[in-house]
Write a structure and sequence with these properties.
This protein has 283 residues and is α/β, with parallel strands linked by helices. It is 38% helix and 11% strand. It has ten helices and five strands; from the N terminus they run αβαβααβααααβαβα.
Length: 283
């Protein structure tokens, strides 16, 4: 979800805020189910996921248990059985566009030379792709406008800071609720939740908190942060367009749930995509 997709670098730069953006524009009257998509549109279905490998890069991180346990592996198989019914022709995944980090691992996996890790790219994307290829479409960018090539590790690492006497920041109640929900849910049930209006609605509404009046001498600082999030997702959508063969492809995008609403709005606002509702396939 949006509140969980902050990089620790973003937090250090601008503090604790949410991120995201809604593309406001006219949405075509294209029906949102596969059977009623116009013949001149490619189909796209977007699955919003949680970060299964616990990378710890967000402002608040859901403490997901080990996805490699027998229980969770069986639950992921349930998800794959549901998604296979969509019969995608191509897979778009949250990996850096035009790099071979994920594609090399995918081809090694197909050749039997790579054991899958915990990342959702592998646990869902690799497993589901099978006889087709994967297409990384992400554009890595922080909300302050920097990209990874502009953020290098220092040659000399600084000494650790002395222990702080300040008490640790308490875990927000919404994180506690979600962690409890996750513990009592199967992977399929939790993905149903993440992709539901009940989860997407509050997240999407919270994006616009950045546009409320705030103290400080830079009246558009928070607006500019939001602009960069908007810019990143537009570039992701551009990369999706580049990999798509119109109008014959059926794209399945697997990406962090924080991107779900904005990319869905982009697809609906285009005249060349028909957005297929993932909830219909997770039932």
């Amino acid at each position: 979800m949006v509140r969980k997709v902050w990089s620790i670098l973003q937090v250090a730069t601008i503090g604790a805020v949410v991120h995201g953006f809604c593309f406001s524009g006219s949405c075509l009257a294209t029906a949102q189910t596969t059977g009623s998509c116009a013949a001149n549109t490619a189909q796209i279905m977007i699955l919003g996921t949680y970060h299964m490998d616990n990378p710890g890069l967000d402002e608040y991180n859901l403490k997901a248990d080990d996805v490699l346990t027998e229980r969770r592996q069986k639950e992921i198989d349930q998800v794959l059985d549901k998604l296979e019914r969509y019969q995608p022709t191509k897979f778009a995944l949250e990996g850096q566009y035009n790099e071979d980090y994920w594609t090399k691992r995918y081809h090694d996996y197909l050749a039997g030379n790579y054991k899958l890790g915990r990342n959702e790219v592998e646990q869902i994307g690799f497993k589901l792709a099978k006889r087709t290829d994967i297409n990384p479409v992400d554009y890595q960018m922080w909300m302050d406008g920097r990209v990874p090539t502009e953020i290098a590790d220092p040659v000399v690492k600084p000494k650790p800071s002395p222990p702080s006497n300040e008490p640790p920041e308490p875990t927000p109640d919404w994180i506690k609720r979600e962690e409890e929900l996750f513990k009592t849910s199967t992977v399929l049930e939790y993905l149903r939740y993440l992709n539901s209006d009940a989860a997407r609605g509050p997240d999407h509404a919270s994006y616009f908190d950045l546009l409320l009046p705030a103290d400080g001498n830079a009246p558009y600082r928070r607006t500019d942060l939001l602009t960069n999030w908007y810019k990143r997702n537009l570039r992701i959508f551009t990369n999706i367009n580049r990999m798509t063969k119109f109008p014959s492809d059926r794209i399945l995008l697997v990406i962090g749930s924080g991107h779900l609403t904005i990319l869905s709005d982009f697809a609906k606002s285009s005249n060349y995509f028909c957005l297929v509702d993932v909830e219909d396939y997770l039932k």
